[in-house]
Amino acid sequence: MRDLLDYRSEFPILEDTTYLVSHSLGPMPRRAGERLGEYARMWRERGIRAWPEGWWATPWTVGDQVGRIVGAPPGSTVMCQNVAIAEAVVLSCFRPVDPARNRVVYERANFPSVRYLYQAQPELEVVVCETADEIAERIDERTLLVPISHVLFKNAEVQHVEPIARRAQEAGAHVVLDCYQSAGIVPLDVAALGVSFAVGGSVKWLCGGPGNGWLYVRPDLIEQLEPTLTGWQAHARPFAFEEELELAPGVARFLTGTPNPAAHMAATAGYDLVEAIGTARIRDNSLRQTELLIELADAAGFEVASPRDPARRGGTVTVAPPEFPAVHAELEARGILCDFRPDAGIRLGPHYFTTDDELRFAVEQIAEILETGAHRRHLDAVALH
Question: Whole-model pTM?
């Protein structure tokens, strides 16, 4: 079996940076450049013939590869531009919204983009909960959708999805599970969870780059639903250019307009690596390294904002040293790439290619920055930002 650190050579940026930010933007695999080159070659040499020779089908062929990673059966996952679009397509399946079932119940800690979507719909009643337990309690016969996160983005807490999914099914509501912070780092089986929909993207742990959102639809719902946010790729016969819409059979009906084959082809380089290693093996290594990070943070006296229970911890450890926005700026200046979130702290996200010494180095640098006051040169810039 190939050693995990052997995969470091697949990521050029690791040659000159300490990369601990895959929870925000996974590094580009070397082969992604090759796939983009293949896209360019097809465009250059094949021109319009590239569409039937591969480009047109990428939303479902690449979608099936994502499906294998997240436990979705073939033919149930398609690529979208991003999660906001994917959830908007889901919402459109229920328009016009029944006034007797117009409630959306979700958790305050969800990623804001999802919240913005539902808040912007005047016909929806939005119920914001503080905890996962409260979500299950607030679901009732008026509830239409329950958009929740598998792993929360600020502190990497793994949510208990099963009780929420069961309660939603009892009430006739639909869970939309956001897997952005779990796909590729936490083993996931969307079919076994029983959620109606799952969404995610490839910018983070999948190392697939932007423009690669995805949507899973539970197979028994596919033919029942008729999205109204649609486009020509969702038509049963798109190249017939008919005036009236007839939705395509299968999961293609959840597509919209012209696809983005360049993004889809680039993304497969990251997906290939995750499939080759296996999410279970990635998770084992992640748990070990996030535990090491917590031990290092404790020894340095830094507050840890992420769960200490391994079963409840995703791939990131959030630490909150004093003046952490300025500390983060100094870390970046030193070639240690991580990020921070307001009211949370600095997020450190090791992946399967990270060395233990890089984790020790990062925490040592945080301590040294605070001890020497090196971060203070960034305070004014952070305040202006």
Answer: 0.95
Residue ranges of domains in the chain = 4-29+278-384, 30-275
Asked if residue 300 has pLDDT above 60, the reply is yes
What is the b/e burial string over 215-232, where b = at least 16 CB atoms within 10 angstroms of the residue's CB?
bbbbeeebeebebeebee
Q: Quick one: tokens of 21?
A: 């930010």
For 73-114, the pLDDT digits (tens) are 999 999 999 999 999 999 999 999 999 999 999 999 989 888
- Which class does domain 30-275 fall in? alpha beta
Query: Please, what is the end-to-end C-alpha distance for the chain in angstroms?
Result: 46
- Specify the amino acid at residue 86: A
Q: What is the 3-state secondary structure (H, E, C) of the chain?
A: CCCHHHHHHHCHHHHCCEECECCCCCCCCHHHHHHHHHHHHHHHHHHHHHHHHHHCCHHHHHHHHHHHHHCCCCCCEEEECCHHHHHHHHHHCCCCCCCCCCEEEEECCCCHHHHHHHHCCCCCEEEEECCHHHHHHHCCCCEEEEEEECECCCCCEECCHHHHHHHHHHHCCEEEEECCCCCCCCCCCHHHHCCCEEEECCCCCCCCCCCCEEEEECHHHHCCCCCCCCCHHHECCHHHCCCCCCECCHHHHHCCCCCCHHHHHHHHHHHHHHHHHCHHHHHHHHHHHHHHHHHHHHHHCCEECCCCCHHHECCCEEEECCCHHHHHHHHHHCCEECEEECCCEEEEECCCCCCHHHHHHHHHHHHHHHHHCHHHHHHHHHHHC
- CATH T-level fold of 4-29+278-384: Aspartate Aminotransferase, domain 1 (3.90.1150)
CA distance 379 to 37: 42
Separation CA 6–CA 171 (nearest Å) = 49
d(CA 208, CA 204): 7
Nearest of 110, 151, 154 to residue 130 by alpha carbon: 110
Query: pLDDT band at residue 385, thresholds of 50, 70 and 90?
Result: low
